[in-house]
Amino acid sequence: MATATTKVQTEMKSNSVAETTGLNKPQTKLIVGGLVVAGILMVYLMMTQAAMQPVLLLLGLLLGYTLFHARFGFTSAFRRIMSVGNGQALRSHMLMLGVAVTLFAPILAYGVSFFGTGASGYVSPVGVSLIVGAFMFGIGMQLGSGCASGTLYAIGGGRTVMFVTLIFFIVGATIGAAHLPFWTDDLPSMGSVSLATSTGLGYGGAWAVSIALFGLIAWITLVVEKKKKAPKMAPLPTAKGWKRIFRGSWPLFAAAIVLAVLNALTLMTRGTPWGITSAFALWGSKAADFIGIDVASWGYWQGNTQALEASIFADTTTVLNFGVILGAFLASAAGGLFKFSKLRKGNVMASIIGGLLMGYGARLAFGCNIGAYFGGIASFSLHGYIWGILALAGTFIALYLRPLFGLSVPKIKDTFC
């Protein structure tokens, strides 16, 4: 671990020097290439798809740029609090959720939308399916070294092993879609519970309860940090002044606010919050249909077979996902950081298992760290909170599994970024 820590610190010093000496210049050709691809896709969407699709592509680009620019993680945040007690990233989650519920409350209460679709949140059932799926996802994201959003933005940054994670994420999501009726129809569930509409609190009361909970969680992380004497997150190198908007890194708290605003804009654009993994199930199901599997007969697709027949670019989540990847690519190239990484056997095996667990778990749990945790809690859904608790439990188990694949686990003596 000491060697790994030294390597991280060396890389950080190298990047810091690069910012000041000009050695780490923007990868101009890659930036131009990324903008050309984004432009072509934007024009295609404007010419062939609904009016909201180009807007969603732009939102996806901004989401991906923000995620990479701040290295805003969910997987690492959960791992740090469970391993060494550092809650800095988790507190940024609480800020993000606090801003999100503040924006979501009036949007959901009045059904505000840009394209006349209305607005509805992600309020999903609480049952065995959720418990099992979120726990699986928690383990999977620690083995795959990235959650749903992390997988996409790591691919945009050139992390080669995450392509493996994505492929098996899609496989797992497709299998989960095929099995979902068993988990939802044949096993116990208490149904969907909204803090706003199921409790009599209304959106105002649910907002107040949510803010209090976020404050309590943030306070608990501070208590845990003090008790464990947790190491601080090392600052990432960054440019100064206005250049910081495009190069270097953003503070986590700034990114938290930006992500919450972009999620609210996504809700107002397509009528539902930001999501990721439903597109993986769609991509995998289309592939399965292509090789002759009767996907349309699955309960998951009953009543929505038109999605299987339409172009993937008609799917709003697909467009957002492509935007996230392109946005992260542009952010990495702007920082001069895009580079394909080497594959290791342990990493590949962990990514295969992690991808399968995340894909299957996301279908069972009605979403991932974005759709269930971020979107669910922002929508005042009880299932979002339970997802977070079970994903943390899965993270704790995964801390003992990661070393089996040569993956590191933070220790108290480490400084990490």
From TrEMBL:
Compartment(s) where it occurs, according to its Swiss-Prot or TrEMBL record: Cell inner membrane
Keywords noted in UniProt: Cell inner membrane, Cell membrane, Membrane, Transmembrane, Transmembrane helix, Transport
Location (main, coarse): membrane
GO cellular component terms, A-Z: plasma membrane
Tagged with keyword Transferase: no
Transmembrane regions listed in the UniProt entry: 30-47, 53-74, 95-116, 122-140, 161-183, 203-224, 245-265, 319-338, 350-374, 380-401
Membrane topology, as annotated: Multi-pass membrane protein
Cited Pfam families: Sulf_transp
Annotated family: Belongs to the TsuA/YedE (TC 9.B.102) family.
Protein name: Uncharacterized protein
Native source species: Tenuibacillus multivorans
Lineage of producing organism: Bacteria, Bacillati, Bacillota, Bacilli, Bacillales
